[in-house]
Design goal:
- It is extended, with a radius of gyration of 24 Å.
- A hairpin with a 2-residue loop joins β4 and β5.
- α3 runs parallel beside α4 (147-164) and α4 runs antiparallel to α6 (219-229).
- The protein has helices at 2-62, 66-98, 110-123, 147-164, 195-200, 219-229, and strands at residues 106-109, 130-135, 142-145, 169-178, 181-189, 234-239, 242-250.
- Strands 2-4-5-7-6 form a five-stranded mixed beta sheet.
- The chain has two domains: 2-98, Helix Hairpins (Orthogonal Bundle), CATH 1.10.287.130; 106-250, Histidine kinase-like ATPase, C-terminal domain (Heat Shock Protein 90), CATH 3.30.565.
- 57% of the residues lie in helices and 19% in strands.
- By secondary structure, it is an alpha+beta fold.
Length: 253
């Protein structure tokens, strides 16, 4: 009986060890696939600006026209800025995903922060080809969060709406206070997204079916990661004539 009991215990331990080994192997395989996907995406994203830099640099040597030289230099600088933005965003997202970026706690007026960010990106923006409407509380609404990260969330969502709104279309920003939470939403008039696009929209480097817009493809992934760290509900839905992004966040006195 003792021998049988010891044998059964040994078999159970072996089964547990095998199960843990299978989990570890699966986890390692997923990590390898994620690294490969990240490397492939990064290589693809870098290919275009690097190609532009090389082409315009070579053209500079053979171009005698000073005006065209300035155009080439501007194109090189734009491509360099795009690469820099991509690298900075990717490092930031990697730090958030790895838990290396800590979230500070600061009490601040969410309405005021939204007005500042929206004013900078939408109201004061030159050459706008859209109409902007907003509905926000008249009173202060305080939250306890990392102010810089929350500014990043607001900025990325507003930039996304601005980037994809149809020419001459409408952007609507709304903040509602619901008991001890605020509900933020931003709508942009645009073509509706299918279910596959809706499910992938928070993924790194995903830009949907429209590939003509510039950007790192990391903005919404950063939004998703920050809000997930706060366990804040968020999402995106098709509504009449456009797309609406939203999130909820607890308020404090």
């Amino acid at each position: 009986n003792i021998m049988f009991s010891n044998l059964r215990s040994a078999l159970e331990e072996l089964e547990l060890a095998n199960a843990q080994l299978a989990k570890d192997v699966k986890k390692e395989r997923i990590l390898l696939e994620q690294r490969k996907e990240l490397a492939d995406n990064l290589s693809h994203e870098m290919k275009t600006p690097l190609g532009l830099i090389r082409a315009y640099t070579e053209s500079l040597n053979d171009e005698p026209d000073p005006e065209k030289q300035q155009q080439y230099i501007k194109a090189i600088l734009d491509a360099t800025e795009r690469m820099d933005g991509l690298i900075v965003s990717l490092l930031d997202l990697s730090a958030l995903e790895a838990g290396a970026a800590e979230l500070d706690k600061e009490r601040f007026d969410f309405v005021e922060l939204t007005e500042i960010v929206a004013g900078r990106l939408l109201i004061d923006a030159p050459d706008t080809n859209f109409t902007f409407h907003y509905t926000i509380p008249e009173e202060k609404v305080f939250v306890l969060a990392d102010k810089k990260r929350m500014e990043q969330v607001l900025g990325n969502l507003i930039e996304n709406a601005k980037k994809y709104v149809l020419p001459g279309g409408e952007i609507r920003l709304k903040i509602q206070q619901e008991n001890d939470h605020i509900h933020f939403s931003i709508f942009n008039q645009a073509s509706l997204l299918d279910e596959q696009e809706l499910s992938k929209i928070w993924n790194k480097f995903y830009r949907g079916s429209d590939q003509h817009h510039k950007g790192s493809g990391l903005g919404l992934a950063i939004v998703s990661q920050i809000l997930s760290m706060y366990h804040a509900p968020f999402g995106v839905v098709n509504i009449e004539n456009g797309i609406e992004f939203y999130f909820c966040f607890p308020t404090v006195k």
